[in-house]
Design a protein that fits this description.
Length: about 250
């Protein structure tokens, strides 16, 4: 949690043009049952959710359970994504099964409730319930070599979130050299039921065991939508073919 929160603060400090005076955003993240949920970081995108603009520290870091606040936000319309940066209800160990979700309780950015910020005013948002998902483990086979796919990228895309989640790396993980993967690594986001696993998603790559960045090496494939009981881990294997070598 500390690492992710520090990263969020660094993004804010490094972003040009984000200076006072602006407006303030505040609200609360909760579990689906209504319990205040700490350790969810907010990330603001433009209204169309195509450009990441600002990220802020996790809920609960201001001393109030589940609460978040961000000052000096320029006036405008935004899309707010909550991501897991150490989610917990007790201030102790993180639970990385809580999933990312847009404000407005959707994984479809186009359907998210837009956040309107006014200069000199505080925009108080209603509580946002964060779904509890699970994790997925498995092995991706390289159908060309008949062995495990060497460090293949995998993305867990929530239902309705294909356009956004394939464009940003929040759910990206890389397998090991033998093709084994676990979605609870890397950005450590929970996977909701109904999500689809994309193996070697177009435009994404990982650095393989030979030190080579492998974007474009494999042809994208995907799983059927998965069913994950909250807090559980399920197995989903995949397979990819290698792309034809390009002639120079």
């Amino acid at each position: 949690m500390r690492l992710v929160v520090s990263t969020c603060v660094a993004v804010l400090a490094a972003s040009p043009g984000w200076a006072a005076p602006g407006g303030t955003i505040e609200g609360t993240a909760t579990t689906v049952g209504g319990t205040p949920l700490n350790g969810m970081c907010g990330v603001l995108y433009d209204a169309k959710a195509t450009t990441q603009l600002i990220a802020f520290a996790g809920t609960g870091t201001d001393g109030t359970a589940g609460h978040y606040t961000q000052a000096n936000v320029p006036p405008g319309h935004y899309t707010l994504l909550f991501v897991n940066c150490g989610a917990n209800t007790d201030g102790k160990g993180p639970n990385f099964n809580y999933t990312p979700i847009f404000f407005g309780s959707t994984w479809n950015a186009a359907k998210a409730t837009k956040v309107v910020v006014t200069r000199g005013a505080t925009t108080s948002l209603g509580p946002q319930a964060i779904p509890l998902g699970g994790s997925v483990v498995g092995t991706v086979k390289d159908k060309t070599t008949k062995h495990g796919a060497d460090t293949v990228p995998i993305m867990a895309v929530p239902p309705g979130g294909t356009k956004f989640f394939l464009a940003f790396s929040w759910t990206l993980v890389c397998s090991d050299a033998a093709g084994a993967y676990n979605t609870s690594t890397f950005f450590q986001q929970g996977v909701p039921t109904g999500a689809t696993l994309y193996f070697a998603p177009n435009g994404w790559g990982c650095t393989d065991s030979q030190g080579v960045f492998n974007a474009g090496k494999f042809i994208q494939s995907k799983s059927k939508p998965v069913t994950i009981p909250p807090g559980s881990t399920i197995p989903v294997d995949g397979a990819v073919k290698e792309s034809a070598p390009q002639n120079n």
